[in-house]
Amino acid sequence: MSKDPVLEVKNISMIYHTLNGEVKAIENIDFKVYEGEIIGIVGPSGCGKSTLLSIISGLIKPSTGEVIVKGKKITKPSKNIGYMFQKEQLFEWRNILQNVLLGLEIQNKVDKMAIEKAERLLNTYGLGEFKESYPRQLSGGMRQRAALIRTLMVEPELLLLDEPFSALDYQTRLAISDEIGLILKKENITTLMVTHDIAEAISISDRVIILSNRPATIKEIIDIELTCPEGRWSPINCREAPEFRHYFNRIWKELDIHV
Ligand code: ADP
Ligand code: MG
Asked: Which residue numbers in the chain have pLDDT < 70?
């Protein structure tokens, strides 16, 4: 990987100042992400994962350190960085096509080409028939896919996903994380995904960053290499890889969760 990184997180620390004093959320986090990589981020609840993504997105300013995307320092939210939360934010009064076009509409960039592209993506990812439906008429998984397509329409250089599937039931989560993993690989989207699901992180990611308890520091970054069933690469199928359990146990131990 001699190419320039898409994302450089340089020595980020974050202290929240609250009425009850200071909360140290992040300490000295430093890593790079290269084009097309999918990076999973796991860590104990409340350790600072969402804070880290918000800093990378430019929504909040770190106490120290900086974030560089494609060589440029991030100081505020930008259209080059797509950000998706746990609950997809589709607008109920807009149909799916109108929702998918929203990002471009804000930028005043809806034209014939944009509409064609939206329709092509909706078709490719199984939502073609639903372009005139309203969000409430779709299943949770379909809404999540529509939200992803909306994010991809503006062609972000970096995609940030904060527990994107955690509001879904288990079966839907498995299916949609598989589909979204396939979309990200196919479209070569550089992605950072926070998840509390270790198996999901292993099955989708090229690397997994393990964070410590608060303040979050990097405990370890693990390269994931799974021998997936030949010719059938997909996150679900990769769960059958013989190495899977080994990674699972290793991450579980590192996370060191006490209840
Ligand atoms: P995670 O996403 O890993 O569960 P968060 O990044 O949401 O963790 O939160 C990390 C810590 O920072 C928590 O202790 C949380 O209470 C605190 N925190 C998050 N946002 C704020 C805020 N805006 N003001 C003060 N404290 C915050
Ligand atoms: Mg969070």
From this structure: 1-2, 258-259
pLDDT at 103: 85
Domain boundaries, the chain: 1-79+161-259, 81-155
**Could you tell me how far CA 112 lies from the centroid of its own chain?**
29
**DSSP code of residue 130:** G
* Protein fold of 1-79+161-259: Rossmann fold (3.40.50)
Residue whose Cα lies nearest atom 25 of ligand 1: it is 16
> How many A from CA of 181 to the centre of ligand 1?
27
CA of 204 to the centre of ligand 1 (A): 25
| Pocket-testing residue among 15, 23, 60, ligand 1, by greatest number of atoms within 8 A of Cβ | 23
Tokens for 122, please give them: 């909706």
- Going from the C-alpha of 92 to that of each of 134, 135, 136, the distances in angstroms are 6, 6, 7
